[in-house]
Every structure is written in C-alpha cells, then in structure tokens.
Amino acid sequence: MAAGVNRKISAASARAHTRRAKQNASFKLPSGICTKILLVLFAGILAWAYQAIQPPIPKTCGSPDGPLVTASRIKLKDGRYLAYKEHGVPRDAAKYKIVYVHGFDSCRHDAVVANTLSPEIVEALRVYIVSFDRPGYGESDPNPKRTVQSLPLDIEELADQLRLGSKFYVIGFSMGGQVIWSCLKYIPHRLAGAALLAPVVNYWWPGFPTNLVTEAYQQQLPQDHWAVRVSHYAPWLTYWWNTQKWFPSSSVVAHSTDILNSEDKKLLPKIVSTRNYTAVVRQQGEYESLHRDLMIGFGTWEFSPMDLDNPFPNNEGSVYMWHGDEDKIVPVILQRYIAQQLPWIHYYELPGAGHMFPHAPGMSDNIVKVLVGE
Question: Where is the AB hydrolase-1 domain (predicted)?
Fold first, then answer.
C-alpha cells in the first residue's frame, strides 16, 4: 500500500486561502436586487416610451414663440381664432355664397375651386367664395377637443360672422369633402347646396359590406394600411407612428407620387408651381393638423353617411358628388356604394380621372355651375 504524500502548507498560504474563501462567500447579491433592477429598467423603458408618443405643444399663431398672424380671422365662441380668405366678387354683391373646405395637408390658400374658377363665371354668376384654415392648419388655432361635429359648427359661426345669410353653399375636396358629410348631418338647415369632390372614406363607417371594404382596403399601399389602422385603433400612437423612422408611415403625409394616377401626375407640375405657401400649412405643428385629421377622419364616427336623410326633401337644394374612377387615394368602389344607398345624391364619376381632378382645366366652372343650378 502506497504511503500518503504529506503536503506542507505555509501559514501565509493558509491565510490567503482563507481570505479568498471569505471573499467568494461574501460576493452575493442582496435578496430581491435582480427584481429591483428589472423594475427600474422597466420604468425607464416606460418613461422613454411615454415621452416618444407625446406630441409637442403646438406653436399657436400670435403666441410669443409662434408664427405671425397675417390672415383675416374671426374669434369663435370658445375663444379660438379661425383664419379665412375671400375670393370672387365682394360678398355684399354676391348672388351665390360658397364656403370652401380644403383637404388634408392644405390651407385656405388651397381653395382649388376658387383659384381655378374662370373670371367670366365669377362675374356672370356673381360668385363669392370664402376658404378657411381648418383647426391647426395655417393660422387657425388648434382644437384639441375637435370632433366630427365641431367643424360644421365652426363653419356655421364663420358664415354668421361674415353675414353670408341664412343659407349658403359648401364645397369640400378630399378630406374637406369628408367634412361635408358632417355638414349634411349637423347643419343641413343652413345649406343651399353641397358638393363633395373625391371625399375621403372612413373604412369603419357602419353599413359597408365587408367584401367591398376589404377590396378597397387592399388597393391601398401597405404603409397606408398601417397608418389608418393606427389612427382608428390606437389614436394615441398616431404622432409616434407618423414621425418614427423604423417603418414607412403614411404615403400621403410623405407626399409620395406612388398614390397618384397618370392624370394626377400630369396635373402635378401645375399644382406645385402655384403652391408657394407650403411652410404655412404645418407651421403650428403636424399633430394638431395632419395627425388630428387622421384621428378624426378614420376614427369612430357618431353617424354613418349612409344613414343620412335627404337634406332637401322639397328640392330646395341638391347634393353632388364627383369622383375619378382611377382615384388611387380614395377607392371609387366605396363611393359607388354610398351613391347607391343615397339616391338623392347626384353622382358624377369621371372616367380616367384620379384624385386631383378638380385642378383640371374647366372643372371648377362645371362644378360651380351645376351646384348653383346655372
């Protein structure tokens, strides 16, 4: 049997070994520290996420840090200011008085019907048109409490302060055309007639057949699927979605030409050449203008246009809708369905036309002549 090997350990080595053992034994995290670290990290992530989705405070016109006021404005009952611009003959000499509602990412200067109406028609029919900046656009104060109903009431106040009379006409283009549905719902007693030009459709309006909505929805670019979904289902994320850089956001906000058809692209140089006020449109911030438009336009409405009654049962006025059959921004199939459900709508479908057809030569003359019955 082999004898055991005796190993002599010095006192210094023994003390060092003991120290290392004590050090190793003492390197233990306090009880619950991992949970606390995770909670702090989670709280930090939540704080970052909260800050990321918060829109900046709008730069209200006339405020110390805001843009200058250059437009004519009225003060509304709730204290907000609404900027407007007058076109055509003086209002006191006018036979026909029209309120024009601009579209998405536009302002009072984008009154295409007023800007392209021929001088001959203006003088012969004595037409007066007033356009205005919708809340948050241009020089109109933002309206954080804006609803589907609030804008028609703003229009009514504008008409009253400008003394347009008991009845007036309304014309709306694109997102402004969508507003005309609200006018027909909430202020029909003030209308002499209405025209909807390529009005934006809300895919969540009750009454649409599911198959038609799906077909129309699939005609949009994938990035626009998400933009309208966020606006409808998670409006609190609208600002973040349209300002983040990870995924493509709304093609309309980005001014992509992929959403224009061939006729639109022919009109585009003319539109761009006359638009020397682009900075004015978003000067108070994008949230209370563009993003609020998306949240209201594609949010949950208090009514569906397809449930509206004829506002002119005694033929004292008429409602007209114009739409291009190659509109790549607002699919025509849903407009056709609305027109079928509302037989009192006079529906004009324009072959080969896209979304920008009101800018085509002579189109505004036709729209105004038909609207006022001349």
Answer: 98-359
